[in-house]
Structures are given as C-alpha cells and as structure tokens.
Inverse folding.
C-alpha cells in the first residue's frame, strides 16, 4: 500500500530541479489568474506564449547586434 | 554569428559574451524544466483518455525521476569530453522531439516509455549538469551570480510554463498542449543554443569573466580546450576527487538537500491535510515558498561571489532545518506559513552554491561528471527519503519523526558544509599567476564543435 501511496505522490514532486508540479497548485494558480485578470483562457495562452517567445527573440536580436558591431569593429 | 570577430578587443566595449550564454541557458532551463513540471497538469486527461489509474501514470513520473538522476554523471562526462555545446544541443533536440512524441502516446505504456525514459533522460542533457558545467567554464569571479540566474530559469519556467500548459489544456486537448511545448523547445530554445552557446570562452578567444588576461593558477596543460585553469584539488581522473574531503562534504550536503526537498515536495500537501489545512491554502503557501525561493536564489548566488560559498551553503541548510523545526513546533497554519517563508529562502539556493564550489575546488577538467555524480546522489537520496517518509507516516500516522529527522540531517549538512576548507582548496583564494594569453582559434566555435 505504501508503495502505491508513494507512486501516487510522485506526481506531487514540485519545482526543485525538474520535478512535477502538484495538480492542486495548478488549480490554485488557474483560479488566481482568473480572479485577477478575468480574461479568457485563449488570451492567457497568447499572453504567456508571447512572453515566452519574446525572451529568446530579444536575446537573439542582441546577439546579432553584438556580432554586427564586432564585425564592423574588426574591419 | 558568434565568431572569432567577437574577440577580446570587442569584449572591452560590450557586455561579456558569457552573459549571453547565461541568458540562453536560462531559457533552455526555463522551457525544459517548465514543460517537465507541467506533467501533473495532464493526469486527469490521461486518466480519461487512457483509462489508466493515477498510480499507473505516476509510474512514468517515478521512472522519469530515477532516470533523470542516473543519466546526470553520463551527461556530465560527455560535457567534459565533448564540450557543453554539443551535449546541450543534442539534449534539447532530443527533449523537444520526445516532448512532441508524448503527444502521440496511444496508451499509458507508451507514455511511460516516452516520458519516463526518452524525455527524462534527454532533460538530463540540459539541466542541471551540462548547463552548470558550461557556466562554470565561462565564469569564475561571478560564478555564483551566473549559476543562480540559470537555476532561476527552472523556477520561472514553473511559474510561466505550468499555467501555460494548464490553459492550453483548457482551450485544446492534451496532445496539442504537448506538441506546442515540444515546438517551444525545438523552435525557440534550440536555435538560441545553436547561435549563441559555446562550450568555453577559449572557443572565442576570450577569458573567464571577460578578463583581458587570464589570472588563474597554472593549467595542467593536457587538454587546452577543457582544462582551462587548475584548481587546488584538480586531478586528471575524476575518481581521484573522492580521495579528498570536499567531494564527500559536498556530496553529503547535497544528499541531505535531496532528502529534505523531496520529502516536502511529495508530502507537503498530504501533511497539510493531516493538520486540517485545505489543499488550496497549502498550495498557496507553496506558491509563496516558490516566490521567495526565486528571490532568495538570485540574492544567494550574487552574495556567494563576495564571501566564502561554504558559509552560505551551511547557512542555507541550517535555515532549511529551522523550517522543518517550525513544522514540528508550531501548530498547523502558522507552521505552514513559517515553513513557506523560511523554506523559501533556501529551496534552490543550494544548487548554484554546490556546483560553483565543486568547480572552485576541483577545477574544470572533470566538473561535468563531478556535478553529475553529486546530482545523482541528490536524486537517489531524495527518492529513498520519499519512500521512507511515506512508510513512517503509514506506521505512526504523523510526519513529526520525518520532520525531526530532516531537521537533524540539515543541521548535520550545515556543519559539514561549514567544515569545508574553502580558503585552502578553492581557486578563488589562491594567488593568481599569469598564464599565456590564449591563442585565438581560426575557425568559429561552431566549426570547432
């Protein structure tokens, strides 16, 4: 029985290195986001998706600018 | 783009290239760890779709945890041998493809195989061992700050990627959600890694921390691409590291880290229910813990570059020990909030401190496998502790003995960490001797890799 309990609770491993988020925490987060923003799920997906994509695109742009400057400097 | 033209001269005028590496590894950790943490979001959907029990689905999670621990030394060794760039690129590629493959799972057995073995082992090719092994090669003076920023990617990934996955599930199905997460890894993280990450500053004719001249103690000189500077206990073979005290001290401390975090991660909400605390309140407290953790992580990493890391590491363990004592001493709700605040200050802070100390003491030649071995101990100790804690609760119907033991272990880990002779063994406290300026390589790092 204890092994079953342990396997079940393996799902509860949360956020230390790469363990799995607890479903209760996810539900709570969803409730809070809904309460605070009051927007549709689609809007939230778009906002979070754009936020996620913005970082690598911005970093890539900075790296490109740096490389261009370096090339110009070396000429 | 990151070619030899980004040489030393340019580094005087622009941001040190190592920070671009940190930004890239932050993002790789963000999407990689974040999407893995989203596993729990899909349990109900899989229950319905596969007709499988939570226990069966949990096998994928359990196997994934163990596999991720086992592969850490393997990927660490590969990082030392082949360079972090190759390992990270292949790791992210495999993780992205594996994540997309989860979407095609027809039943729980395929889910176990794909998620438990493919995704979880590929994730070991990204974080923490390969990513941290690259960062320690790029930084020495700001190693703690850089390491904590990369580790912060895991915390941030949990807060952004997990709700993202949860809401994707609301507007689409679970297969679409896994496809989108896989696409984020393949089309955002992978190009960034390909364009930016280089295994070591020497690949670009640069020095650690962006210094104009290398200032570390002399090299062992056997392999110019990987053994850049020599730390006081640097050895040719990684096994030799176990003949010195710091490797045992760091491993012991980190195993206690694994024990105590795994116990809380798995049993926290269950403990809360025994104290008549609602799951929502427990989840809220855990959310607070994670928020404090993010701030604590960055502060500890930065401060560790200005003082002996072992003192911070010991303090982190002792503070966490206080958190466990609070769970025993205080009644239900106050204990919950006390632990959230106290535990949050120390939750992930041990990661950058331990990885940085390993590099400081043992140098860079074997840092990948050494970090991987320490990480494996962390995972195994944590897994064992979860099982034992569950057994103790089944027998005594209380978590008090578990929390008391955890507090005891943490005090022990704190004392062990304080006892590390960092001034004697860390490269940070050795008198610098000039090395010849590294010869710029003719080809780009991409060609070299």
């Amino acid at each position: 029985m204890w092994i079953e309990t342990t396997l079940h609770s393996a799902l509860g491993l949360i956020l230390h290195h790469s363990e799995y988020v607890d479903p209760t925490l996810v539900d709570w987060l969803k409730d809070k986001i809904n309460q605070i923003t009051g927007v549709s799920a689609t809007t939230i997906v778009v906002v979070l998706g754009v936020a996620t994509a913005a970082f690598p695109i911005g970093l890539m742009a900075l790296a490109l600018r740096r490389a261009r400057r370096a090339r110009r400097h070396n000429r | 783009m990151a070619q030899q033209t980004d040489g030393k001269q340019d580094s005087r005028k622009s941001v040190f290239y190592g920070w671009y590496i940190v930004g890239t590894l932050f993002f790789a950790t963000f999407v990689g760890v974040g999407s893995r943490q989203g596993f729990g979001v899909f349990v109900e959907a899989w229950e319905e779709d596969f007709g499988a029990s939570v226990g069966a689905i949990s096998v994928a999670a359990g196997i994934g945890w163990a596999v991720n621990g086992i592969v850490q030394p393997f990927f660490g060794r590969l990082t030392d041998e082949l360079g972090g760039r190759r390992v990270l690129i292949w790791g992210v590629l495999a993780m992205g493809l594996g994540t997309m493959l989860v979407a095609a799972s027809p039943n729980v057995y395929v889910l176990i195989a794909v998620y438990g073995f493919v995704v979880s082992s590929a994730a070991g090719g990204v974080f923490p061992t390969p990513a941290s092994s690259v960062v320690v090669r790029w930084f020495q003076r700001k190693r703690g700050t850089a390491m904590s920023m990369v580790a912060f990617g895991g915390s941030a990934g949990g807060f952004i990627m997990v709700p993202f996955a949860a809401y994707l599930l609301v507007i689409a199905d679970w297969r679409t959600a896994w496809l989108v997460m896989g696409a984020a890894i393949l089309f955002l993280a992978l190009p960034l890694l390909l364009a930016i990450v280089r295994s070591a500053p020497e690949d670009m004719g640069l020095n650690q921390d962006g210094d104009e001249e290398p200032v570390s103690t002399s090299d062992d000189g056997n392999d110019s691409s990987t053994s850049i500077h020599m730390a006081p206990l640097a050895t040719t073979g990684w096994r030799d590291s176990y003949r010195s005290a710091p490797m045992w001290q760091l491993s012991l401390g980190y195993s206690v880290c694994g024990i105590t975090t795994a116990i809380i991660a798995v049993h926290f909400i269950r403990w809360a229910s025994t104290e008549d605390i609602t799951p929502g309140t427990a989840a809220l407290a855990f959310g607070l813990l994670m928020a404090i953790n993010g701030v604590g992580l960055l502060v500890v990493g930065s401060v560790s570059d200005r003082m002996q890391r072992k003192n911070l590491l010991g303090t982190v363990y002792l503070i966490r020990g206080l958190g466990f004592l609070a769970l025993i001493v205080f009644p239900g709700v106050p204990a919950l909030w006390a632990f959230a605040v106290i535990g949050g200050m120390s939750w992930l802070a041990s990661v950058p401190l331990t990885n940085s100390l390993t590099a400081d003491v043992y140098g860079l030649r074997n840092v990948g496998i050494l970090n991987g071995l320490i990480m494996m101990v962390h995972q195994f100790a944590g897994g064992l502790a979860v099982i034992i804690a569950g057994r103790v609760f089944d027998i005594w119907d209380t978590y008090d003995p578990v929390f008391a033991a955890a507090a005891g272990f943490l005090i022990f880990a704190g004392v062990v960490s304080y006892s590390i002779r960092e001034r004697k063994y860390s490269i940070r406290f050795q008198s610098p001797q000039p090395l010849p300026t590294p010869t710029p390589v003719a080809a780009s790092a991409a060609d070299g890799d």
Observations:
- The CA atoms of residues 29 and 40 of chain A lie 15 Å apart.
- Confidence is low (pLDDT under 50) at residues 7-18 of chain A.
- Residues 41-74 of chain A form the longest helix (34 residues).
- Chain A touches chain B through 55 residues (CB under 8 Å).
